[in-house]
Amino acid sequence: MIRVAILISGGGSNMVRLVESMVDDHPARPVLVASNDARATGLDKAARMGVPTAAIDHRPYGKDRTGFEAELLKPILAVKPDILCLAGFMRVLTPEFVERFAGRMLNIHPSLLPKYPGLHTHRRAIEAGDTEAGCTVHEVTPVLDDGPILGQARVPVEPGDTPDELAARVLVQEHRLYPAVLRRFAEGKREPVFL
Ligand code: GRF
User: Fold this and answer.
1) What single-letter DSSP state applies at residue 92?
2) Residue 3, SS3?
3) 94/128 same-domain check
4) C-alpha 168 to ligand 1 mean position (Å)
5) The domain that contains 85 carries what CATH number?
6) Which atom of ligand 1 is nearest to the CA of 109?
7) Can you tell which superkingdom this protein's organism belongs to (predicted)?
């Protein structure tokens, strides 16, 4: 059985869909949900779904990313994950951390990469006058939001959209895309999924 650990920072709506998808004939199962914030409401949702959780507060470490990651690694390595999924995880990870999981670490980003890496993706798409937006699941590499694309889903940008309205439309597609990509990835498939 392929073991999946999921990192979150907040509500964990993508994590919930991933956990819900790993049932029956799915080749993977969730073994941990970890957060950089003990207040992340996604932790309660994971616990209610029977998934072990861990919280490592990043704030005491300040700019010491390596120190924070050394603590974060403990519960992760303890469950021996085969795949690491970042799902609404809002901390930038060091290249050293990423290298540990090279080729088996996924992230979902709320834009059609390579457009709009980084933050405020929906506002940027609206301000650019884009008529389309969406989300991307990619392999995580040391360069932020830059790894091989494993899947994308597109939505229209409607006239007058606010960033929140566009974010809500994209989030619906995130919840479809991430489970679809994770299943194929767990099955050893690497050709990208386009929804
Ligand atoms: C989502 O827009 C996701 O794309 C981004 O974080 C937001 C919240 O995700 N990375 P979740 O509800 O915590 O999964």
Assistant:
1) P
2) strand
3) no
4) 10
5) 3.40.50.170
6) 4
7) Bacteria
